[in-house]
Amino acid sequence: MSHKSNSLKQLALQRFKKNFWGVFSFYFIVLVGLVSVFAYVFAPDNSQYANQMHLAIHSEKPGFKVTMLTIPSKINVEQSVFDKLFFGKKNTDTEIPISSYVVKNNELEYTEYAADGLKGAEKTIKLHVFPNGAVKDFIKEKTFLFGTDKYGRDLLSRVLVGARISFFIGFVAVLISLIIGIFMGSVAGYFGGKVDAVIMWIINVTWSIPTLLLVIAITLALGKGFWQVFIAVGLTMWVEVARVVRGQIISTKEMQYVTAARALGYTDLRIIVKHILPNIMAPVIVISAANFAGAILIESGLSFLGIGAQPPMASWGAMIKDHYNYIILGKPYLAIIPGLCIMSLVMAFMLIGNALRDALDVKN
């Protein structure tokens, strides 16, 4: 039985490897996962939430370059390497976009950057502010590959950091939906009768409520925040899993190997966990991939409505909300870039779901 199980797994893996879009989507999802985990390593702006604002250079086009003056702060912030790596740097320095500068009489004279051909304010600062007076180490040209948003923040950094919410909400929501859905579906399908009737009533009531409305209600009950959204989305996605598991168990529980397990005196828990669930996980895996995509879309919708991840936290949905009106103002990339990110990640999960469905189909 073990040898047969292993051979079926190898056969499914071989089928999956032959599916170009499935393999491509898998590697794309792995890449997005790595970027979301190590976002602050890849982001040009590694401050917390990539929230370094420069209002003088707001809404600039992709590839925009400017000279940036960094004035070091005297405030020392102790931060561990782990904290910097995964949660960003607590930046207390002041960054000022400038158009020109000159060093005179132990002072730095600089002109602040101003858009549309205007001349910025001229200011001076003592050189002793900079360690050892090395002012040139604090003046560097900065390139914004994706341009800047309406607050002058680096759009590329915001997109990279925003991937974390969209990616991890899929994992948390699917995990919650699997735990609740498999439990409810297993109990309903295996025991049947009144237990099945009660659970199906709960499923039907939950199913009849619009998903977005239910998520909004749960979010408002738990409060606005990062983890509240994760939990709210997960609590609305278990119904589909429960229905699939229930149907699979109803059609499986009368098979010979289950009857043999009962004859050997195994407990109901062991029969469900050890004998039935491993044989019905194929459709559950496929629906989980679809739930990943659904969770990303729901979170984006919540952020667009303003009840998802709260500012200054970066979120693709919130970025679209902040800039959708720029589509008619000649700067559509501010909303299109995060929109394409959502679309590509959702498409990848849908494609890998289709590939898994084909690979795990025993009829082929």
Automatic annotation (TrEMBL):
PROSITE patterns: ABC_TM1
Single GO BP term: transmembrane transport
Record's bilayer topology term: Multi-pass membrane protein
Transmembrane portions of the chain: 20-43, 165-191, 198-220, 226-245, 280-298, 333-356
Keyword Membrane carried by entry: yes
SUPFAM superfamilies for this protein: MetI-like (SSF161098)
Alphabetical UniProt keywords: Cell membrane, Membrane, Transmembrane, Transmembrane helix, Transport
InterPro entries: BP-dependent_transpt_permease (IPR050366), MetI-like (IPR000515), MetI-like_sf (IPR035906), OppC_N (IPR025966)
Domain ABC transmembrane type-1 residues, every copy: 163-353
Subcellular localization, as worded in the UniProt entry: Cell membrane
A GO-annotated cellular component: plasma membrane
Protein name: Peptide/nickel transport system permease protein
